[in-house]
Amino acid sequence: MSDHPQVQFIERGWLSANMIVLGGDTRGPLVIDTGYASHAQQTLALVEQQLLEHGHTAPRALLNTHLHSDHCGGNAQLQARYGCPLWIPPAEFEAAEQWNEAALTFRDTGQRCERFTPHARLQPGDTVEQGTMQWHVHAAPGHDPASVLLFEPRLGLMISADALWERGFGIVFPEIAPQAALGAAFDEVEQTLDLIQALSPRRVLPGHGPQFSDLAAALQESRSRLAYFRSEPVRHALHAAKALLMYHLLEWRQRTWPELQTWLAETPVQTRLREQAGEPDAARWAQGLVVGLTKTGQVAADEAGVRLRG
Ligand SMILES: [Zn+2]
């Protein structure tokens, strides 16, 4: 819930981004973000339940805030089931339409996403009307250069995707892209935080973690995290390598050392991060990342391999 009967905030685990369902329109609900591929059945069930509760047979459209695998992994199955159109940010429209895997992020991050078809562009500056709601589309670069966020000024609600969580924000992917212009995307993170501050939502529905109303505290935490990364960009690279490995473990639950090494070697962004950090030894790098994750209590490791705790 989001304190508004026409806005359903469905908080999910970290493997699948949160989903938001906007009702209140005779044309059917809008479904924003669709989780990770391996959760597609769960996503279908959640959408089906929303449709039943509100007496609709299909969503009016699916929307993606950006095309990371945890936000668009249910698109294909939802489209197959309901035949509904998909609206995505304009910067990745052609890449998705042609399924250009070099331009899309799935291969680079060693993640999965089933092919889907976009139909319209969520253009920054546009307004998405749903019932009496008017959701303004804003560009939200930083975590992802193509990402958008949605803001409903009358309700004071913001769908922030991975630009702002209650505790921080998503990996700044342009900083770890091939031939990255180091630091440039940190400026975009700051500009997007400034935009969010200026819009001043009363409640934020983020891409991961719980919804929140204390905007000042969230912005302060994100700004201090940004300052930490900016002062020593290798910290961001290490954070990204651990976060992407953690994501991989969320998908697989456990991996042997050889499986883990193979995945790291075959995942381009992981190789770049190891090189950025100046570590030539792949095995030592893998062990270092795992030790980092065991310190936070998220994973356990022994001679056999690595597994999620709990
Ligand atoms: Zn993302």
UniProtKB/TrEMBL annotation:
Keywords: Antibiotic resistance, Hydrolase, Metal-binding, Periplasm, Signal, Zinc. It holds the Pfam family Lactamase_B. Its cofactor is Zn(2+). It comes from the Bacteria. It is found in: Periplasm. Residues 16-208 form the Metallo-beta-lactamase domain. It catalyses: a beta-lactam + H2O = a substituted beta-amino acid. PROSITE patterns: BETA_LACTAMASE_B_1. Its main location: periplasm. It is an enzyme of class 3 (hydrolase). Its EC number is 3.5.2.6. PANTHER family: METALLO-BETA-LACTAMASE DOMAIN-CONTAINING, METALLO-BETA-LACTAMASE SUPERFAMILY PROTEIN. Belongs to the metallo-beta-lactamase superfamily. Class-B beta-lactamase family. This is beta-lactamase.
